[in-house]
Amino acid sequence: MELLKKNKIATGALCILAIAGLCAYVFQLMGGLGVTGMNNGTSWGLYITMFMLFVGLSAGGLIVASSASVFHIEKFKKVALPAVVLSTVCICVAGLFVLIDLGGVYRIWRIFTGPNFMSPLLWDVCVIVCYLIINILYLYFMCSQKADSKKVAVISRFALPIAILVHSVTAWIFGLQISREGWYSAIMAPIFVASAMDSGLALLLISLVALEKAKLIKLGRDLMASLAGLLATCIAVDAFFIGCEVLTVAYPQTAGGAQLLGEMFSGATAPFFWFEVAAGLIVPFCILVFAKNRQRTGLVMGASVLVVLGVLCKRIWLLFTSFIHPNMAGAPGISSGSSVAAHSSGIDIWSTAGSYAPTPVEILVVLGVISLASLVYLALVSKLIEGGKVAVSTAAASEAQAS
Questions:
Q1: Are 320 and 42 in contact (CB under 8 A)?
Q2: Percent of the chain having pLDDT more than 70?
Q3: 189, 124 in Cβ contact below 8 A?
């Protein structure tokens, strides 16, 4: 809590945004999802975009912490605790956005009374719960008074496959939908895993540098350079997968593929696609590929921020490009579901193209959730790091002796 007390202005601003977000969410509960920009043509919006983003952001911390025990990377052990805290907060935020997107959140009990085991949505709920449990157990064994390196090592071996699985299942929600040209792809899961690794590592680097400036941890240039080098590798893999997907869609020159690429290259989602390619992939890679740049905190921070923004843009163009031109051959269109259509008749009720823009309610809710998550993260790291230093160092020493 000391960290929050030292930064009273930032803490106050985050509290105000969190309260504003809560008020906006209450307004949404009262008015229904009609107060958002979503409709029958574009049934997923800003909330699901942020869900995809934060599922990915949760990857970096758990992968780094798990690698410290599984692969005996000693230098990663001193940042394992803040890394797991970051992963835990991010996966909680991702789950929260799913609940917010449900609208009638009081119907959540239906998942338990009538689950559809063929639905990737249910698979995602299951793996996210498992992922959260792994994170909580990880924190418990690291921060308990009797820190046990053997238990931490066992949890680490479960954490790595679960981290990969949670991002793969999230990708399958989209990749198994044959009705959407831009989603129906076998490479969707590898793309999600790659972008989760680079965005998660980027956010971890940003948070670690901030904690070092707050004098809660001592990052060091060698560890920062190692994480930045790993980030550069993940960026290259992410770019390769995107290139493979674009080439596969473009080469056959099908009508659906041409329409999809037209929106990505020069249509409604083009600004997000090109920002991700240029600012989210090329520029950060060109910065971090040189060893001397990985030693400079400012360049590493700048590249990390660009990676996170680039992955956010990727989530936007990936989600919305496939909503713009729905597959509806032989049908007059899609019932728009808008308030105007509800009082219309004939062809006026039909929509032939998807359209969406987030409303102030959605934006306030998103800002509120992110602000609340920031407050929780700062409170947890300031409380756990001091209490966990002794436990973690004891566990590390005993593990080193055992190996």
A1: yes
A2: 86
A3: no
* 53-57, 331-335, 353-357, 386-390: least confidently modelled range: 386-390
User: Residues 270-287: pLDDT tens digits?
Assistant: 999 999 999 999 999 999
Beta pairing partners, 351:
334
Stated pTM of the model: 0.88
Q: Answer yes or no: are the C-beta atoms of 153 and 69 closer than 8 Å.
A: yes
* The predicted structure's pLDDT at residue 229: 94
Closest by CA position to 365, among listed 104, 13, 52, 18: 18
Q: What share of the chain is helix, strand, coil (3-state, %, to 5)?
A: 75, 0, 20
DSSP-derived secondary structure for 12-44? HHHHHHHHHHHHHHHHHHHH-GGGSS--SSS--
CB-CB contact of 393 with 143 (8 Å):
no
Element (H, E) at 351: strand 350-351
pLDDT score for 350? 60
pLDDT band at 198 (very low <50, low <70, confident <90, very high): very high
Helical pair 80-102 and 360-402, crossing angle rounded to 10 deg = 150
What is d(CA 123, CA 134) in angstroms, rounded to the nearest whole number? 17
